[in-house]
C-alpha cells in the first residue's frame, strides 16, 4: 500500500526506517520546516525525519501549516492509500484524515485510553505508572480517541528517565507499527473501540510543571526529575540563580523537621530535604552552562549545609 509518513523528531525515525526496511511503499514524508539554529540564527537545522527521508530517497514536504489548500493539493498528488503519523507536531484536520482512502494511523506512546495528549512518556513517569507501551490506532478528529489496531506493553523500571523511555518506546513503536500495518494489509486487524470513560490526559510540558516544589514528597520530586531528564529538565533556584537537577536518589540524611529545600549534605554528594525525606542529586546544570557532576558544581559555588533552594509560593 502507498503510505505518506508524518513525523518530525528522533522518536519518529525508527518507525520510518522500519516501514522502509519491511518493504512498505513510503511515497512521501511530511515533517516540520527547518528551524534556525545558533545565536546568529543564520543557519537552519532540518528535522531528523527530513534527514532520514532524503537518505532513503523519499520526497519531503515541509508545510508551515498542513491546512492550506495548496498543501492539500500537493499531498493528494501522491495518491496515497494510508497515512502514518508518529510525533508530527500538528493536529490534523478532517480534510487530511479523509484524504487517504484507508485513513490514517497513529503511533502513540501510551496504552490508550490512558495518557492521551502531547507528553505521554513524561507523564507516565511523573504519575508513577509501572507500565506503559505503544498504541497503534486509527485517527479521528478527537485527539487520540480512535479505535485501537494494536498495542504492545512494556514495564517502566523505577530509575528510568524520560529520555531513556523515549528511546525504548521509539523502537517498540516501530515494531508495533509494522505489525499493525501488516494486520491492516491482510484484513486481520480486529479494531477495538476505546472506553472513553477511562481516558486520562498527558498535556504539554510547561515550565511551571517542570519547577521543583520542595514541599512535595521525595518520591514525587524524584519522579518529576526523572520524567524531565534530559529535556526540559526539572529546575529550581538558589540565591536567585536557576539550576536544573538530575539523577535523584533517596537519601538517609533527612531529619524530622528539616526545612524543604534545605541542603542537608554536600560531601560527597548534594542532598536536599523535601516534605518527607531527602534526595541526593548526581548531576546539575546551571543556567547557560553544560550539565556537570553535582560535586564539581558544589566546589565552584561554595554551597554549604543550611543553604536553601527556593520553593514557589
CATH class of the largest domain: Alpha Beta
User: Based on the structure, what is the oligomeric state of the protein chains?
Assistant: single chain
* CATH homologous superfamily grouping of the largest domain: Formyl transferase, N-terminal domain
Mean pLDDT: 95
In the CATH hierarchy, the architecture of the largest domain is 3-Layer(aba) Sandwich
Number of helices: 9
From the spread of the alpha carbons, the general shape counts as elongated
State the CATH topology of the largest domain. Rossmann fold
Q: How much of the residues is beta strand, in percent?
A: 25-35%
Largest sheet: 7 strands, mixed
Give, in order, the helices and strands.
EHEEEHEHEHEHEEHHHEEEEEEH
Task: Give the helices and strands, then pairings.
Elements: E1 2-7, H1 13-21, E2 25-30, E3 35-37, E4 43-45, H2 48-55, E5 60-61, H3 69-76, E6 82-86, H4 94-97, E7 104-108, H5 120-126, E8 131-138, E9 148-155, H6 162-186, H7 207-210, H8 218-227, E10 234-238, E11 241-251, E12 263-265, E13 270-273, E14 278-286, E15 292-293, H9 294-301
Parallel strand pairs: 1-2, 1-6, 2-5, 6-7
Antiparallel strand pairs: 3-4, 7-8, 8-9, 10-11, 11-14, 12-13, 13-14, 14-15
Amino acid at each position: 500500500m502507498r503510505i505518506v509518513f508524518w513525523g518530525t523528531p528522533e522518536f519518529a525515525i525508527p518507525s520510518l526506517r522500519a516501514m522502509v526496511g519491511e518493504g512498505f511503499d513510503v511515497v512521501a514524508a511530511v515533517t516540520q520546516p527547518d528551524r534556525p539554529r545558533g545565536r546568529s540564527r543564520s543557519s537552519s537545522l532540518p528535522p531528523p525525519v527530513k534527514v532520514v527521508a532524503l537518505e532513503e530517497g523519499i520526497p519531503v514536504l515541509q508545510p508551515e501549516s498542513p491546512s492550506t489548500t495548496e498543501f492539500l493539493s500537493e499531498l493528494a498528488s501522491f495518491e496515497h492509500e494510508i497515512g502514518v503519523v508518529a510525533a508530527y507536531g500538528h493536529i490534523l484536520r478532517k480534510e487530511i484524515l479523509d484524504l487517504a482512502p484507508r485513513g490514517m494511523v497513529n503511533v502513540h506512546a501510551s496504552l490508550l485510553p490512558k495518557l492521551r495528549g502531547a507528553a505521554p512518556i513524561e507523564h507516565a513517569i511523573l504519575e508513577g505508572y509501572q507500565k506503559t507501551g505503544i498504541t497503534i490506532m486509527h485517527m479521528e478528529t478527537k485527539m487520540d480517541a480512535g479505535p485501537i489496531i494494536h498495542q504492545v506493553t512494556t514495564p517502566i523500571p523505577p530509575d528510568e528517565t524520560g529520555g531513556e523511555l523515549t528511546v525504548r518506546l521509539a523502537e517498540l513503536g516501530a515494531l508495533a507499527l509494522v505489525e499493525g500495518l501488516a494486520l491492516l494489509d491482510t484484513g486481520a486487524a480486529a479494531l477495538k473501540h476505546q472506553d472513553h470513560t477511562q481516558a486520562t490526559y498527558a498535556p504539554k510540558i510547561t515550565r511551571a510543571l517542570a519547577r521543583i516544589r520542595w514541599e512535595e514528597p521525595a518520591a514525587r520530586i524524584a519522579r518529576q526529575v526523572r520524567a524531565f531528564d534530559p529535556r526540559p529538565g526539572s529546575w529550581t533556584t538558589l540565591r536567585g540563580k536557576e539550576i536544573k537537577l538530575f539523577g535523584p536518589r533517596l537519601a538517609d540524611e533527612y531529619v524530622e523537621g528539616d526545612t524543604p529545600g534545605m541542603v542537608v549534605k554536600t560531601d560527597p554528594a548534594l542532598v536536599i530535604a523535601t516534605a518527607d525525606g531527602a534526595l541526593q542529586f548526581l548531576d546539575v546544570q546551571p543556567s547557560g552552562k553544560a550539565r556537570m557532576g553535582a560535586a564539581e558544581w558544589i566546589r565552584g559555588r561554595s554551597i554549604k549545609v543550611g543553604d536553601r533552594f527556593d520553593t514557589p509560593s
